[in-house]
């Protein structure tokens, strides 16, 4: 991983402190943003994400906090035990495969048809995904190697699709590099080897357990089936869409 960081991300242990400090020094140029964290380990994430280009790393850091600042309601009760987030996680929104791929990347999966609209909203799913990424990015190896998200749209109903507004889809498309594989999984297997994929994706492993990642985040609270209160997180999707912008999502 250290060699990969050096070759692919331009990471140099000898200049690491200087690289971090140069990004930190740019914080004063954006007094409109509350930078809640500027410690070395946190800034290093953004340098790795932008291959140690200082200004690009700072711009990503600023966008991260600007997004949180503009969408405060998204991050209220931002924890795995929040009722809406918990239900989304237990239904595999998102889930994670046990094994890393041959590039050392973490594989996240979503089975879109599992969305139970009576128990949690699209906003809850988005919050669960963001929370999961926050947890995973703590791992320095994943900061270097990255993530892949596989979405299975089979059996997705028209009723469920009606909740995917154009603005939300636009944000997803602009924020992700997307490959469409259709029903032919050969192109998927060229990107991710079948040895680490469950049978649902034509892989060689047993069927996917969507609770694997949820149990990791929730630990002993995974089996706490207290009644879900639909009013516990009631921010309307339309209000979130008004606040989100493609620029901030990137």
UniProtKB/TrEMBL annotation:
Record membrane topology: Peripheral membrane protein
Protein keywords: Cytoplasmic vesicle, Endosome, Golgi apparatus, Lipid-binding, Membrane
Main subcellular localisation: cytoplasm
Places the protein is found: Cytoplasmic vesicle, Clathrin-coated vesicle; Early endosome membrane; Golgi apparatus, trans-Golgi network membrane
Cited PROSITE patterns: CRAL_TRIO (PS50191)
Occurrences of domain CRAL-TRIO (ranges): 85-250
Gene3D superfamilies found in the cross-reference section: CRAL-TRIO lipid binding domain, N-terminal domain of phosphatidylinositol transfer protein sec14p
A Pfam family that the UniProt record links to this protein: CRAL_TRIO_N
Superkingdom field: Eukaryota
SUPFAM superfamilies: CRAL/TRIO domain, CRAL/TRIO N-terminal domain
GO molecular function: phosphatidylinositol bisphosphate binding
UniProt record, GO biological process: lysosome organization
Keyword Cytoplasm: no
This protein's GO CC annotations: clathrin-coated vesicle; early endosome membrane; trans-Golgi network
Keyword Membrane among UniProt keywords: yes
Record function comment: Required for normal morphology of late endosomes and/or lysosomes in neurons. Binds phosphatidylinositol 3,5-bisphosphate (PtdIns(3,5)P2).
Protein name, per record: Clavesin-2
Species for this entry: Galemys pyrenaicus
